[in-house]
Design a protein that fits this description.
mainly alpha
């Protein structure tokens, strides 16, 4: 009997082996923790270094711009972290 790759469907089978639809819902919680953590760090750094030099408005805009640029990385890393955490809890 030949082994087939995961996620590949045989011609005579109607089952697709993949993650459950709600599997990455837990990644939303990880994403929230990552986002709040680095956003708090950015806010503290901006308060210490940017606000005295350029003011609160431009500091806030800078932090928001950095946050928007980091959203894809937070999304990706939250899924990876969740997959690793969940792999350790499988029965």
């Amino acid at each position: 009997m030949r082994h087939q790759k995961r996620g590949v469907v045989k011609a005579d089978a109607s089952l697709i082996f993949e993650r459950e639809q709600g599997f990455f819902q837990g990644a939303m919680y990880v994403s929230w923790v990552l986002g709040v953590t680095y956003l708090a760090g950015l806010a503290i750094l901006a308060q210490q270094f940017l606000v005295p030099r350029i003011g609160i408005v431009y500091s806030t805009l800078s932090v928001v711009a950095i946050h928007v640029m980091c959203i894809p990385a937070v999304f990706r890393y939250s899924r990876v972290i969740w997959a690793h955490l969940n792999a350790g809890t499988r029965p």
